[in-house]
UDP-N-acetylglucosamine 1-carboxyvinyltransferase
Amino acid sequence: MEKLIINGGKSIYGEVEISGAKNAVVAILPAAIIASKGKCCIDNIPNIEDVNCIERIFEYLGCKVERKEGALTIDSTVVKSLNANTEHVRKMRASYYFLGALLGRFKEARVELPGGCPIGSRPIDQHIKGFEALGASVTIECGAVSVKAERLVGTSIYFDVISVGATINVMLAAVFAEGVTILENAAKEPHVVDVANFLNSMGAKIKGAGTDTIKITGVDEVVGCNYSVIPDQIEAGTFMVATAACGGEVKIKNVIPKHLESISAKLIEMGANVIEGDDNIIVKSDKNLKGVNIKTLPYPGFPTDVQQPMSTLLAVSKGRSVINESIYENRLKHVEELNRMGANITVEGRVAVIDGVEKLKGANVKATDLRAGAALVIAGLVAEGTTVVEGIQHIDRGYPNIEEKFKHLGGDITRAKCD
Ligand code: EPU
């Protein structure tokens, strides 16, 4: 077990390079298993634990994986097992994408129920609804989901809730479904578009990703391809918010500014200076920012994944802010830790009322999920004195080299073994 030790109170300056998007890569990698010919060479892979987990799952299923300088080559021409019965599946959420991918290619799969951050109930009923609509039978027994179909046939599926996971998983299964599949009320997140682009590069026929209606025309076969993952919208958002909170000036490089509009808009509303370039964003802040209200929503709304880092910024901004977390019922657990550092936040259900304080004070705190971890790191950078963040295995699942990136910007942050 490791921890981060942060001596806070310094403004941050310089440039930071954003890595490949976690929530895109964790879908693109499992999707590669549908290629029955050729290898997939996927570039801009972030160095995070979730990617390590997926590599282990591929090996468990008998596929060949090779990692070199930020790229991963997957040879799935031979798949020896359709039963992903390994602890690595249970360690992360996105392992459920092996279900849709294997169902599409082999018409059969068994995958343990996924893990992931404890931020709410996270059902998979919409994934199941989609698989069944395509003609599969789905059973959940002994902690695993089994899917099986004689054949998959395209149809129209209207999702009851907007779900990134269900949209991608059903899209994966539908690549090989006979005829046309239409997904309605689909998620529009950038990573949904990235997965569709990757599948099309392999030979799939998918149109409309990025809108709420996705049309998939079934094909018989797809082949390996070269592909580069988009930059991480959430990592970029985290550094934008961190700069606003710590004060200073940071150029956030290798981003798609369009993906960050909801975050830029809020920071500008608070009084920060946000300058968009072609593939970078500069954030300047004198820390003299005013509170705002946030409601998390599916893309293009304000992302739930940036809500926790944002709550740290609002904790040290002037006046009252209100956060309404509309996606997950349990994504405000980090607030207790922020209050230990001197924040003044009350939570009722999915709503946090934040009365801004002048400063936070260093304390020993613990991350209980990935973005809570990012929120606490930012709090440590802002706070006077020393903060020790434990539970950083959650942070390592989704942020590559977080302490190195902040150190490069002038943050005093080091990693150490827990006693
Ligand atoms: N939902 C259902 N039924 C389903 C699926 C989802 O009711 O079958 C509900 C969920 O309970 C939630 C909402 O729909 O209230 C949205 O869930 P979604 O399926 O979109 O989330 P997910 O696919 O499980 C992904 C990201 C999350 C991110 C959400 C929302 C991955 C691996 N995870 O989760 O990322 O918060 O979309 O954008 O892509 C993170 O990166 O920290 C993280 C948690």
Notes: Residues 22-23, 26, 93-94, 117, 120-127, 161, 163-166, 187, 189, 234, 304-305, 327-328, 370-371, 398 surround EPU (CB under 6 Å). The radius of gyration is 21 Å. The longest strand covers residues 2-7.
